[in-house]
Amino acid sequence: MIWLTPPVYGSKEERIESRGYTCEYCHGQGGFLGDRSSPNDSEWKICPVCEGSGKMDAEVTIKWKPNKRENDKQRTHKY
Ligand SMILES: [Zn+2]
Asked: Which DSSP string do the residues of 12-79 spell out, in sequence order?
């Protein structure tokens, strides 16, 4: 869970980094042995998601923007 607080220093962009997650795609293995399409292939395939590291870092960028009331006026419901 991310706790949001409006920026204090006038910055409209905020970055939150969270590191060391296990790659779900390869289950932390960093790759796969063989290829399902060719059973004889025992070549080690590097995981395209974590690029072989087996771990993932999360980077969340939060963009703050002014509340524009004009946008709300356009959202008129016809029903
Ligand atoms: Zn992976």
From this structure: SEEEEEEEEEEPTTTTTSSEEESBTTBTT--PEEEPTTTTTSSEEEEEEEEE-----HHHHHH-----
pLDDT single digits (tens) 5-46: 777 777 788 888 999 999 999 999 999 987 666 666 678 899
Rounded to the nearest whole angstrom, what is the distance from the C-alpha of residue 36 to the centroid of ligand 1? 17
**Tokens representing 23?**
């790659």
Measured in angstroms, how far is the CA atom of residue 43 from the centroid of ligand 1? 16
